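ARCHIVE CARD
Drawer: 12
Card no.: 0347
Subject: one protein chain, sequence and derived structure
Cross-reference: see card 0346
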Amino acid sequence: MSEGRPDLGAFAGEADEGGDRVVCHVDMDCFYAACERLREPALRGEPLVVGMGYESDEPHGAVATASYEAREFGVESAMAISEALELLPRKVEAARDDDADVDEAGFYRPVDLDYYEDVAADVKAVLRERADVLREVSIDEAYLDVTDRVDWADSEGVAAYAREIKGRIREAVGVVASVGVAPTMSAAKIASDHDKPDGLVVVEPGEVRAFLAPLDVAEIHNVGPVTARELREMGIETAGDLAGADPDALRERFGERGLQIRRFARGEDDRDVEPVGEPKSLSRESAFTEATAEREAKRDRVRALAADVAERAEREDALYRTIGIKVVTPPFDVNTRAESLPGPVQNADLVTETALDLLAEFADERVRKVGVRVSNLSFTESDQASLTGFDGEGVGSPDDAAENAGEPLDAEHERVTPDANAEQALGDDAGAGQVRLTGFGDANSDEEAADEPERPSEGQTSLWEYV
């Protein structure tokens, strides 16, 4: 385990926002792979790929997460399984091939969300024991406000408390977490990612800006690859550069989000750790390593995402009245399309068919990222709608469905095309090799919807939808 405080350099002692709050960000390391290793201890230390939309012995689907051993072969989150197999053949197939090297092969497992959520529930139980306020961000990460448990006046006690959380998770559940501790949410999140795997980094009040200053600008909360590239074009390479940048220039280039990321780079973040409730939509997004115009590649990715979304909705007992897709084309043009239904349904085949129908508009387009979403959710025991009408009740207007989904409808009340600039203003800046769950700027989302997802080195699909 790695633990400690970073070298703070010249900025140490400067005041930061956040007061005396003690915020922990707990991020599980390679969680899907860790869960599979709990079930199959023989997989420990072996290259392991967990695929969504993947079936045993098939080349379909996309990588949900790859163990550190698999990443050494170039396998990344969101990569097509077929591409991953070229880099890392299946161990069983290599064993049958006299010309193959078994040591250059790995294991593949399909996503088992029910099992992962059982393990995640055990982790959440540990966290609830050790925090008065808990914000569940995804299946593998959460914020904790432990201000009432420890005090920055005893910095060693703060570190010991975080170390206890890590140890209890390992002891009670058998998986490994990295923890960042800071007086702000954004700094705590960056700290948890700073020394992975199995890391523990504590950033005290007055030291946040010094901690952030030398980091690459891409590491700042709400800065993704596209924004990072544009910042570098402005001569802004590090968080320190961003902290000292002209606010008017940032506002002109990025709007209000430019000022927000500047505040984060300066260590200024007054958001409270607050629990959140039921989602207003369920979604999956996945970026291609490079923009592609290949039709089947796009369709295969959408099929995998649609299957995951439908499965999650079924587990959550969620009905939906809107099915939509998101397509990002170069350089960063965000296009969303949606179709409203006669009433709430739960139908996996319908999600896939509708998503593919909507995707047809982009059949010949080069695409960077795709996403699938169901929205206008209902968690009651009400009857489902038939495909021709709502059984037993009057059908709400399409405009009502669109309003609840947070999207305007066009004249046919079928498809939706929100303003692309509004989407980008949400910070929806995910980079290649990413799979993220909190997509499309849901009305129930706040900073996590705008935040950059995990980078390829730590990327995996996140599944605690409540953000």
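Annotation on reverse: The first strand starts at residue 2 and ends at 4. The radius of gyration is 22 Å.
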